[in-house]
């Protein structure tokens, strides 16, 4: 199993929820919390998770921290990955892999030692315009408010993501009292809530995912404080694809809501734009 596939599976939950539309209903408490959270303007976040799969000698774990602004659709995220295959770590020396990501509207920039000496012209940053890539597969660019690059964007979609939820407890998150909700998001219902131009393609993609993995509903746990702010989100997925089992867990915590520092895009001389290559790759696979 390729590292690219593992990475894709690790963010499946974020992608799924980021494309969730659906009609309101059972998830109303979470919907209201999503709206309240985005109205806070910005926040700091921490992220952690893991991936287990056949062919891996150990579990791949990742953690990170960053800040995001819901209004300007920009932010930053510094990630650390451990447990990578020897074929990767041998190129990095000892220690975990470090990845820095910058989000600016519909564009994502990424820098990592793994890319050192591999980008042309001495570039230090890899650039990808997510909105153009989305348009290339037939999605409405206007529906990609920050190109899907912002990993907290799913909060905006929780306010309309059909499914069911219930209170399962009360916990303290970073010293703040919260109510713990557990729910599920039905993928096919989520597809029906998309703009007309996107609905058919997303439905087909989800049907293929369901056929290959058996994943029809995405479980989600959300912790909400007394002010209606989302303080924590957790997802644990168990997938079976091509007769192999893959497990993924993702957990994010949000804190220090309010203004965030503006993000400055890297200088053009330090950037290699791979958007065209990505579009050509999409074209080659139809």
Offer a quick outline of the entry:
With 286 residues, the chain is of the alpha+beta class. The protein has helices at residues 3-10, 12-18, 28-39, 86-89, 130-136, 154-157, 187-192, 196-213, 275-284; strands at 42-52, 60-69, 74-82, 97-104, 107-111, 125-129, 163-173, 176-186, 217-225, 230-241, 244-255, 271-273.
What would you note in describing this structure?
This protein has one domain: outer membrane lipoprotein receptor (LolB), chain A (Clam). The protein has a twelve-stranded mixed β-sheet. The protein is built from nine helices and twelve strands. Helix 5 packs parallel to helix 9. The N terminus is likely disordered. The protein is α+β, with helices and mostly antiparallel strands and 286 residues long. The protein starts with a helix and ends with a helix.
